[in-house]
From TrEMBL:
InterPro entries attached to this UniProt entry: 6-PTP_synth/QueD, 6-PTP_synth/QueD_sf
Record-level GO BP terms: tRNA queuosine(34) biosynthetic process
Pfam families in the record: PTPS
Cofactor(s) the protein needs: Zn(2+)
Protein name: 6-carboxy-5,6,7,8-tetrahydropterin synthase
CC cofactor note: Binds 1 zinc ion per subunit.
Class of the enzyme per the UniProt entry, highest EC level: lyase
Matching PANTHER family: 6-PYRUVOYL TETRAHYDROBIOPTERIN SYNTHASE, PYRUVOYL TETRAHYDROBIOPTERIN SYNTHASE
Reactions this protein catalyses: 7,8-dihydroneopterin 3'-triphosphate + H2O = 6-carboxy-5,6,7,8-tetrahydropterin + triphosphate + acetaldehyde + 2 H(+)
Alphabetically ordered keywords of this record: Lyase, Metal-binding, Queuosine biosynthesis, Zinc
UniProt: Zn(2+) binding residues: 14, 27, 29
Zinc among keywords: yes
Length: 121
């Protein structure tokens, strides 16, 4: 089995809903977000999926979040923008695009260098 991963860092502001702590206040993170795809077959170039193609799709999704106040976005209108919910949102958006080889495995969202949430199905 082969697995490829692409990551990118974006800056977002958010507030957690009904959270009993300082994170209920407006604050921001430089989120490091990683997507992973896996599969058993490679193409004639020896690639599972060309990183360029993954980045096109991944960057397109992350552009909708970068430098945004997440709570203002429709996806987080009634959903607290925790790292877990951000990971699921990115996963759901990426699922819309499929590749000839390689299936979506997971999306990981680091809020800080030591705290990460992972969504997979
Ligand atoms: N499971 C989760 N727990 C928390 C999330 C989350 O998304 N998933 N998010 C937060 C807050 O967004 C918060 O900004 C981060 O909290 P915290 O780690 O407490 O931040 P600090 O930098 O203040 O922590 P210190 O390590 O004490 O400096 C909270 N929890
Ligand atoms: Zn936060």
């Amino acid at each position: 089995m082969f697995e490829i991963r692409v990551e990118k860092t974006i800056a977002c502001a958010h507030r957690l809903f009904d959270y009993n702590g300082p994170c209920e206040e407006l604050h921001g993170h430089n989120y490091r977000i990683e997507v992973a795809y896996a599969g058993t077959e490679l193409d004639r170039f020896g690639m599972l999926i060309d990183f360029t193609d993954v980045k096109r799709v991944f960057n397109g999704v992350l552009e909708t979040l970068d430098h945004k106040y997440l709570n203002d976005l429709p996806a987080f209108k009634d959903l607290s923008p925790s790292a877990e919910n951000i990971a699921k949102h990115v996963y759901d958006e990426l699922k819309r695009e499929t590749f000839e080889r390689g299936t979506l495995v997971s999306v990981s969202v680091w809020e800080t260098p030591t705290q990460v949430a992972v969504y997979r199905e």
